[in-house]
Amino acid sequence: MPDLTRILLGSVFGCYLLAVLLYLLALGRTGPATGRAALVLVSGGFLLQSACLAQRWWSAGYLPVTNLFATQFFFSWALAATFLYFELRYRIKAAGLFVILLNLLLLGSALPRDPKIPPLIPSLDTPLFTLHIGFSFFGYAFFAMAFSLGVLFLIQQRRPTPLLPPLAELRRLNEEAIFLGFCLFSFCMLWGSLWAYLAWGFYFSWNIKAFWSFIVWLFYAGMCHAKFVRRWQGTGYAWLSIAGFGVVLFTYLGIGLLMASNHPLD
Amino acid sequence: MNALPPPPLRTRLWALCTSLKAAIVLASLATLLAMGGSLVIHFNPQLFGDLDQRTLGSWLAANLPGHPFRAGWLVLLTVLMVLLAGNTLCCFFDWLFRLRARWRKLGEYLLHLGFLLIVTGYLWGSVAGDRSSGNQLREGETVPLSGKPGWYLRLDRFEAVPGPGGRPVDMRSSVTLLHGDQPEKSATIRINHPLLWEDLVILPESFGRSPSGFRFLAAGGRSIDLGPGTVARIARGVELQVLDFYPDSVVDGAGRTLRRGETLVDPALRLALVKADGTRWTGWYRLRTGVPAELAGLGLDLQPREPLFQTFTVLTINRDPGARLALSGAAAMLLGTTLALVSFYRKRRLGDRPSIT
After folding, report:
1. Is B271 on the interface with A (CB under 8 A)?
2. CA B27 to CA A214: how far, in whole Å?
3. Partner-chain contact A199 B201, CB within 8 Å
4. Residue A22 near chain B (CB below 8 Å)
5. Touching check for A208 and chain B: CB below 8 Å?
6. Which of A82, A222, B6, B246 has the greatest CB tally within 10 Å of its CB?
7. B214 SS3 class
8. CB A215 within 8 A of CB A247
């Protein structure tokens, strides 16, 4: 099975790599065919990745997200799904380039790792774990999209370009990404808390990973309120999106790799 | 043109309590404080290591006086969360007062209500709750529940469930919750399947085994297992009773045998010999020093062969009176978030934009 996984992974990586190149090409040439071809490649890559995820889920008997390879792979899949959501709904084109680049980076760094699925430890053997993790990475993916849109908002504000959507559109998309990410992350926190109560007897843990997840939630809860304050709209919101993604990255990678926690990545 | 009179104090106070900007300031301060505090936790494991094993209230009571600078931020964070919950409560009431005009925000305000209930539940549990880990129980053993006078927990049966490689992967403890001597609830608890009863949550933590007696070789090559409670009829109408077993014993200056520990080092059995005429001898058989003369005199040459072990389960017993409130809050938040998502797409379809403060 790892061979099939490797073949599928290689194909997915190839699709995303080609899509990035085509999107970059589309930045130079404005022909719609190049952008459409890139979208087809991302969609194809996403379908292959979905098949790979389904195959791994089927063979393991549980959603395999228990080590660094598996979480990178799942995060990459969630990023691709988020990109497709925005692309198909709003035709964001180059605005989603960062997310696909991040996706490529995640998948690229996962490829050298062993895709073998480790045995599931008993405390993770619950549907609450699947819900907790699934919503968590979709929340992260929307926050990554918000980061991308925030950066592009600032670029568009300082050096206006017809290649990017107008400022008002970027602001609206950024707010949508934050709101959807916050809702998904709230689901992640709720299912995770319920699971913690049943597994450990308390629903709020002071463990550094759990605590930083609460920080992420609190930060974005504040952001969901800040969009109603005129001063924070647009530029302020873009900067907050960038800062928020820094908090997300630290929570996902920084803690898992640098600190001892009950959410080890490797 | 006459200037408008300033609004009454009550109105201004209510505006402050329901202020969106106040919510943002409080959330920002709490976020920044939590970020800094998390580093204090990380770099002081000796102080914060047991924070999850105790309720916040009992942890603060034990550690705040001795470490006001390192533990003080937790008090500040609690104050900020209480203020944020207060702001949320005021906003929720403000919304309720104008429900007819603002019912479309039901999802968002259910989310607010959920947050309020969770914070309140957590604080209640932190003050009035109790956490107890490392409770060892052997089959048939009963322990009192701390914080619930008259309530007991009995272990009826324990089984370690082995995985494909033979390693234990789960722990099944059949337990009965007793009120006095009346069983109130029986359940088999295992990983992710605790016993939930009122404010109690009882869950498996680990298991182990401890020496419970010894196997002996008696005359004629017969083996005999002796542990506390064993009664054996031996030759000439003499009854041998095992009164106690110490895995590790020591004799003090006064000649008394004392329990030194639970590891098998210098085991000893406290025995009683009851003869048919009613005469009785009690004494210690320290296995390393040889068979007591009283036993040898009866021709009872009990030679120790191997220790006997008994498996025990280790349970976590937590009491959290705020858990149900927090669970209600979680349900409100779940529903609220779902409604907010549905309402978001509906508003987008209708071209609504957020109001600006």
Report:
1. no
2. 12
3. no
4. no
5. yes
6. A82
7. strand
8. yes
Is the pLDDT score of B336 beyond 90?
A: yes
The CA distance from A147 to the nearest CA of chain B, in Å, is: 19
**Angle, CA of B163, B166 and B171, to the nearest 5°:** 55
pTM: 0.87
With contact defined as beta carbons under 8 Å apart, do A256 and A264 qualify? Answer: yes
Instruction: Please indicate if any CB of chain A lies within 8 Å of the CB of B1.
Output: no
Residues in A touching B23 (Cβ below 8 Å): 222, 225
Residue type, B323: A
Per-residue confidence (pLDDT) for residue A183, from 0 to 100 = 96
CB A191 within 8 A of CB A132: yes
Which residue of B27, B42, B163 is in closest CB contact with A221? B27
pLDDT of residue A260: 59
B300 phi/psi in degrees, rounded to 5:
-100, 90
CB contacts of B354 in chain A (<8 Å) are 175, 227-228
Beta strands B142-144 and B223-226: pairing type? unpaired
User: Chain B contact for A226, CB < 8 A?
Assistant: yes
3-state secondary structure of B315: strand
The residue type found at B209 is: R
Give residue-wise pLDDT tens across range B20-31.
999 999 999 999
| Longest pairwise C-alpha distance within chain B | 120
Interface test with A, best of B21, B192, B338 (most A CBs within 10 A): B192
**Which residue has 């619950």 as its token pair?**
A126
Please list, residue by residue across A155-187, b when 16 or more beta carbons sit within 10 angstroms of its beta carbon and e when fewer do: ebeeeeeebbbebebbbbbbbbbbbbbbbbbbb
Residue numbers of A between 43 and 82 with CB closer than 8 Å to B: none
pLDDT tens digits, one per residue of B111-167: 999 999 999 999 999 999 999 999 999 999 999 998 889 999 999 999 988 877 778
**One-letter amino acid identity for B26?**
L
Quick check: B23 and B84 in contact, CB under 8 A?
A: yes
Which of B27, B193, B333 lies at the smallest CB-CB distance from A190?
Answer: B333
Pair of tokens at residue B28: 């920002």
pLDDT class for A266, splitting at 50, 70, 90?
low
- Which position has the token pair 């191997």? B306
pLDDT-based confidence at residue A76 (cuts at 50, 70, 90):
very high
* Cβ-defined contacts of B99-105 (< 8 Å, 24+): B104/B343, B104/B347, B105/B343
